[in-house]
Structures are given as C-alpha cells and as structure tokens.
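Hi W.,

Here's what went into the run:
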Amino acid sequence: MSTQESIAKEGVDAETVDAVKTVGEKYKYGFETDIEMEYAPKGVNEDIVRLISEKNDEPAWMLEWRLDAFRRWEKMVEPDWAMVNYPEIDFQDIYYYARPKSMVEKPKSLDEVDPKLLETYNKLGIPLAEQALLAGVEGAEEGRKVAVDAVFDSVSVGTTFQKELAAAGVIFCSISEAIKDHPELVKKYLGTVVPPTDNFYATLNSAVFSDGSFVYIPEGVKCPMELSTYFRINAENTGQFERTLIVAEKGAQVSYLEGCTAPMRDENQLHAAVVELVIQEDADIKYSTVQNWYPGDENGVGGIYNFVTKRADCRGDRAKVMWTQVETGSAVTWKYPSCILRGDDSQGEFYSIAIANNMQQADTGTKMVHLGKRTKSRIVSKGISAGKAQNTYRGLVSMHPKAKDSRNYTQCDSLLIGDKCGAHTVPYMECRNNSSRIEHEATTSKVDDEQLFYCRQRGMGEEEAVALIVNGFAKEVLQSLPMEFAMEAQKLVAISLEGSVG
Amino acid sequence: MGEAKFDNPTEALLARHSAPRKGSDWAEATRHAARERTLGMGAAGRRDEYWRYTNPTALNAAEAPDVEIMQLEEVPVFDGVEKLLVTFVDGVYAPEQSDDLSGEGLEISTLEEALSADIHWASDVFGVLEGNGQSPVKRPFAALNTALAGQGVVIRATGKVSKPVALRYCRENTTSDAVLHHVVRVESGADLNILENGAGASRLNTVMEVDVAKGGTFHHLRAQGRDHARLAATAIFARLGAESHFKSFTLTVNGVLTRNEVVIDINGDDTKASVAGACLGDGDFLHDDTIFITHDAVNCESRQVFKKVLKNGATGVFQGKILVQPDAQKTDGYQISQGLLLDDDSNFLAKPELEIYADDVACSHGSTCGAVDENSLFYLMSRGVPRAEAQNMMIIAFLDEAIQEIEDEVLADDIRARLSGWAERHKT
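Here's what came out:
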C-alpha cells in the first residue's frame, strides 16, 4: 500500500487507519477486552428468559412472546440436515446474557460510554465517534457517512448519528430501545418475516435475544447515510443472540452493513441471530455482511458456531432486496439469507463469497420464493475451499403457480485449493408454472495452473497469486459490496487463504 | 400400509408378496439379510429427503391398483431388432413366449435356477450391489425386492454377445404386484446389450444389479410401456471396473407414478458411465429419476442427461448426485436436467447435487425449466408450419440431447419414433 493511500481522512485517528491497514495479517480481531462483565446464570430456562426481558425493561407482551417461543423451543430438535459436523452443543452450558458492568446504567450519549469499550471498537477499525468515514479510505465520496450501532456481547453500546437520522425521519437504534420507544412498530413487524416457530435456532433466538438493531425508514425516505451494525462477542462461554429488524416503507431506500468478530478462544461459542427485512412497495434494501467471526485454529480448535436465520419479505410491488455476504469466519456456518418475493415485479438478489480454510465448515446459500407475478431473482454464489474445509452451497428456487412470467438465474461456482477439502452443491429447483424460467449452472474446479504460472512468472509469491486468482473468481460478488466493505473483503480473502498453498 | 397387525410398516410390505421358492443356503442368507435391511430402514415416506417430491403412498399401499390393459396396434418397441427374447407375464417367467435361454458369448438362466445352485458366480453380485447401494441413501423398495426376489434372469457375458437380450414385460391381469430381480455380470472385455420393454404389472418393482469387469461394455435401453395407471419403482445398481463402459437410457411415456433409481459405483480408472432418460407425461403423471454416481477412481467420466416434457398437471422430478471421493482425481462429471412445461399446471422439480472431495476435477451441472420458446414457434409458424406441429418439432428437438446418448442408431431411431407417436397423440 502506498503512503498516499494510507493518509487518514480528517477525523479518523491514526490508530484506526493502522487497524484497517494491517488487516492483511492473521486473524486480527482475536484480542480480548478485559472488562468487568455482568452475567446471567449459565443455561436457559423460563427464569433466564424472564431475566433477559427484565434487564431490557420490556413490556409484558414482549415477555409473553419470548416465553411462547421458549416453550416451543423446548419441544424442538436440532436440525441435522446440513453438511456440517460438530460436537453436540450443551445449551445449558452457555451464558445467555452478558453485559459490561458499565452498561448497567445505559449511557445517555456516546461520550459517557466506557472508554474501554470505545477502544475495543477503535481497535476493530469501527470508531464510534461520529465521523465521516469508517476507515479513512482515500478517494471515497466526499462527506459520505456511516452510522454505526455497536453490539458488545448481549447489549448495544451505542448508536452514532442518531440525531441526524431522526431529522430525516429514520429510526436507527438498538432493538431493546425500539421495544421501549416504538412498541407499535416492533409489535407490528417483529416475527412476521421469521416467525418464532420458524426453526430451532430462530425459536431459541426469539426466546433469548438480548439486543440487535432496529431500522425504520418511513415512506419515500432515502436514508441519508449507510447504516451499519458491528457485532462483537467478547465474553467467554457466551452465546450471542441478536435480532435485527429493518422496515422500509413505501418507496424507502437503505443500505445496511453488518460486520462481526470475536476473540480467539479454544472453546466454541454460539452465535444464533435472526434478521428480518420488511420491504414495502417500491422500497429497496441492500444488506451487506462481512462475517469474520473467529474461525478456530488450523486444527479446528475453537471458533464460532454461526447459526443464523435471515429473511427478506418483499411485501409490496416492485420491492427490491439485495443480500451480499462475504463469509470468511466461523468454525461452522449455517446460514441461508432468503427472499420471499410476494409483491408483483419484486426482485431478490443474492451474492455470496464463502471461504472455508483449515477445518472450517460452511453450509450456506439462499432461498428465492417467487409468489408474485413477474418476480425476478438472481443468485451468484462463489464457494472457495482450502485446507481440510468443507463448503456447501444449499439453495432453493421455487416458482409458485401464481408467479407467472418470473425469472431466476443461478450460478454457483466452487473452487478447490488442495486435495483435502470438499466443495458441495445442493440446489433445489421447483417450477410450478410454465411462463417462468429457472436457469441454474454450477461448476467445480481448482485454481487454474496456467493462471498460477502466469502470475508466478511475473514475480508474485504463490499465496499472493492464489489470492489474486481467488479475488478474480469472486469478482462479481465483490463488486456488489459497498466500497469500504469491498476493500476489506478483498483483503479478507487473502488472509482467509493464508497457509492454504505450498 | 396401515394394517394393525404389523408393528413396522415394512413388515406389511414384505407380507404383501408370497415367499419365493426356497433357494440354496447362500441365496437364503442374502434374502434374509435383505429382509433385515428392509425392516431396519422402514418404509419410504414423505419426510425422507429423497422422497420429498414423490409421494410413495401408492407404492406402499397394501393393494396394487387395478389398471386397464392397453391394447396397442402399433409395432412393439425394439420389434425390428434381432434379439434373445425373455418374456415375463405379470412378473412371472413365461418360457413358452421366450426364446431358448442360450446364446453366443453368454450364459443365461432364470433367477430361480441360479439361486438354487449351491455354487454360483451370482452370489458375488446378487443382493451385494443392492446392499452397497443402500448407503448413504436408503432405498427401501430395492431392499424389499431382494428379500422377495424369485423371478428374473441371471446373465453372464463372457465375450461379444451377438444379439441383445430383450426382457419383455407383458400384462394379462389388470391387478398384479410384480417383483423382478436381474443379475448381470459382464466379464473382462465382454460386451452386452440389454433391452427392457413393457409395463410388466399394475405395480412393478424391478432391480437390476450389473457388475462390469475391466474393459467390459454394458448398454441398457428401456421403454417402460404405455399403460396409464400403472406404478413402477425400479433400481439399477452398477459396479464398474477399470476401462469399462456403461450406458443406460430410459424412455417413459405415461404411468401415474414412476420412480427410476440408478446407483453407480465407479471403482476402476478410465471408466465411462452415462445415464439418460426422456419422459413425456400428460395429466396424472409423476416421473422421478433419482441418480447417484460415485467416482472412486482416477480419470473417469460420467454423464447424466434427463429431459422431461410435461403437460396438464404432470410432474417431473430429477434428483441427481455426483459424489467424487478424495482420490478420484481427473474426474469429469456432467449433469443436465431440463423440464419443458407445455402448460401452466405442470411441475418440474429438480435437485442436482454435487459432493466433491478431490480438487483436480471438472464437474458441472445445469438445470433449466421453462415453456416452449415462443420465438422459435413463431419462426416455424412464419414458414407455414401449423402451431401444434411446430410445437411437436420443438418437443422432439428438446428431447434429442438425451436420445443422442443411445449408441445404437437403429434403436435410437426406434425411440425417436415413439416420441413422435406420443407427441402426435397428445397434440394440442
């Protein structure tokens, strides 16, 4: 990186720039913040659910909602259909609630937040000061802003730019605040996309979710800045169960970014989130994720179990949603961001890069459920396996009888680096009318020797060459990310593949 | 199912059929093991991943359906070909309608005869390939078939077999529940063609186990009859040695429920396997191809080509899988499944899977589904072809990629003629 490129933008402290600059090292985010924590007792039962609800100062209806979910969860069995193997999880050996002691009295503004917490986010490259840019990237659009909601273990630490957003009519706050301040909105939308009965992990999440983000974009409003949530697991033996709800009213637009990291630890930690997107007529949500939870070491010790349910409901005509994900972290990933294309002419897009190295296992993909007429979906999935990792694309495209004249295009490509890893594709295609068209293509191949030779011949190291080729392989997806994320993601690709060749 | 006296639904399945004639010790041991297997795995149900698109209720039912026997005026398929004819009527060998069981380059006998011999080469194949094929996906109808196997043929090709062996399945009773089990071994360098033709029973369960030794060639061509309301669950289990060739093609027109499973294990290097099928369905029709090809050797090629033409609410299902084991380098796996929906009520459901543990491979799959291309129709119509005829031309052209998998041109043309016949009869 040239010196010119690393010059910090005004308002970004040097430490942040360094943090991002050195992203190209081993798992950067493996540090632990030594901070006094308050835990709920280990395990999950009705009392814990009550306790979480009480800690968040929730109304009675919310508690009832949680308890219903919990009672149902107790009768459910963990799904085993995914191509992932991990030791049985003892759900009673996890802390379901952990918050920094300094957060007991919720700070009124960012200035009151414990400096240790702020420092943690600075180290992660996510400064919680209200400033123009995430990471001082030279050449970015002038005055481009990103509002951040930072979630630390079970609680939201703070949300930036709330005032400016409020002026535009946008609500961006933690879900716990939303339950208190905007109960009518939460009540109307929560659980309508991913019902509390949806699946084992979503039901558990419905019972014990502690925090997360809430976004409401009113009719006709184009959100004045990008919104972002940064999830950090810090405490030991703690599960993180966050819940995100984004509502885009008629004609609204928003771009939302999500990032996540965790310390390096020898034991596995559970992350079971639920994300719900409600998209009304002519509205548009772009949801981007860079998932970089700690993946465990090269022998498969430690790492996060990432069992996530994400779904978008295009309720209105011409609603549009775009999921983009870069999945480089986690020991085990089980994640299928889906689109329900209910409104006529609605559109769903899914772009994914999933990289699994060492002992990582990823089973990820999407569902495109076409219900409305002339709905369109596009799936581009790039899976990269290296080391002894297993990477599975699992997806569903379903054209219902009434979804006349709909279109789907799916492309899923897998790249294998080394002969100890696996790449799998499990697509389901269901076409129930004849005016719709489904096209699906999948290929599996290895890094091309000729391309590698070409790069090596021009003086590139082997790892560098592989990273370049992989970035080229994943180009279509990287291009659909917001710029700051795209830069980070490209570097992540290189880091994630470290040690995979030679 | 559902009879109260059985604790296990598979017990009811086993009890549906009378016990086959007792065979020698090895044969009884194999049947017994298959019986245990059947009881252990339970009946197929909608909750099973591999039955999600096909409802097995009619196959599990206590009674076989009553199916009218179709009186055909057309020349039976494969009629013009010189062949060794073996006929089964309602699932029972009919020597009076069959040729002498002998031929150049092959040994052939009934299954009953082979299973009563104290020592027989078939003991290495019978129930063995089926048993191996039960993992990782269970196939209860195939296990049931082995447990009840009494009728079928046993063929061993030792050289170039001069004419194809034609298995003809006739029907005389409107209700019949047939179990047929064929065992085939193609010795090193030998070459065998098998033709299968006919609906065979109102409910037919067939298993064919095919063991191809190094350098052997096996070609299989099947037409599953035209009787409308019949049910069929078939399975082919193949084990392929080095440098061998395997080809199987199935034509299905009509039939309310057809489940064709093909399970291939490629064990030797430089082997080629192809499984293909064309089906045409109108109305109450469900056709399911479930294919599982395992590559466990170097430099092998496999192809799956399936085309389905569906109208008036017909359903086509394709579940294909290519599994490439860790050392199966230089694998070339190809898979295409396509549905052509002639109207808005028909369904095409596909699950083309890849599971790959080797890096130096080129595997691809494609799957598409849609209506007849209006532009092409318009092109033909603008040149004076009536719409219905233009559509039929498009149907035939669509299916032809699958037909091209048939090596023998004469047989391929025979199949083409059947497709045209169907298209003509079902013209809209």
